[in-house]
Amino acid sequence: ISKGPGNTKVVKSTAVPPGPPVYLDLVYIPNHSNSKNVDVEFFKRVRSSYYVVSGNDSAAEEPSRAVLDSLLEGKAQWESNMQVTLIPTHDSEVMREWYQDTHEKQQDLNIMVLASSSTVVMQDESFPACKIEL
Questions:
Q1: What's the pLDDT score for residue 30?
Q2: pTM exceeds 0.90
Q3: What InterPro entries does the database record attribute to this sequence (predicted)?
């Protein structure tokens, strides 16, 4: 932020500023679950029953293993052990490895990963889909 000629003030910005938690039913993890924008503070503050994890670009590290680990660390700091469902939009190597490596911790924290079991066909394209009932 600039404050006149030669007077510059540097302000550090965070994705989610500190404060009380916000409770939501469904949250889309921003920016294809990239760790540049989502960290532990996000999951400590933005508490949801369902998180949608997008990203299918391993070169861009999306979804990020760091974001998935941040979910575990953030959820561990919640006062309650409410059920959380993680909904991946794509089947990725990162997601499969994270699921296998952290399965026991997921169970301890009451986190369920929803696997895609349906296919939607639109025009000439088909893709996996999940039905969510809130």
A1: 79
A2: no
A3: MAP1
> Which range marks the domain in which residue 73 is found?
22-119
CA within 13 Å, CB half, 130: 18
The total number of structural domains in the chain stands at: 1
3-state secondary structure of 8: strand
Q: What is the pLDDT of residue 37?
A: 74
d(CA 65, CA 87) in angstroms, rounded, equals 15
Is residue 45, in this structure, part of any structural domain at all?
Answer: yes
Estimate the crossing angle of helix 65-75 against helix 93-108, to 10 degrees: 10
Angle at alpha carbon of residue 22, lines to 18 and 26, rounded to 5°: 130
Give the residue carrying structure tokens 């299918």: 56
How confident is the model over 81-114, as pLDDT tens digits?
999 999 988 878 888 899 999 999 999 999 999 8
Query: Does residue 85 fall inside a structural domain?
Result: yes
Distance CA 80, CA 57 (A): 34
